[in-house]
Amino acid sequence: MSWIVLILVGALCGWLASMIMKTDAQQGAVANILIGIVGAVLAQWLFGSLLNIGGAEAAGSGFSFWSIIWGVVGSVVLIALLKALKILR
């Protein structure tokens, strides 16, 4: 059951981040899921562990308001990195 929640939250975070960064037309559902999951892990590591920003530990921890917010923030950072590396346009 946790894998289903992980995929759903990853898809939601990835889709919201792709809408914010205007890359939704070039990304499919699988890319949104992967970017959402990796973005949530990135947010948890970067903002929670490295910078000690309160609440960022919730990223990737399940289906809650804060996990979705931090997952979207991490996904936006990941899409920005992918755009800077010319992987996404």
TrEMBL record:
Keywords linked to the UniProt accession: Cell membrane, Membrane, Transmembrane, Transmembrane helix
Domain of life of the native organism: Bacteria
Subcellular location, record wording: Cell membrane
Transmembrane segments: 29-51, 63-85
The keyword DNA repair is annotated on this UniProt entry: no
Chief location of this protein within or outside the cell: membrane
Keyword Translocase: no
UniProt membrane topology term: Multi-pass membrane protein
Family (UniProt): Belongs to the UPF0410 family.
Classification via PANTHER family: UPF0410 PROTEIN YMGE
Protein name as it appears in the record: GlsB/YeaQ/YmgE family stress response membrane protein
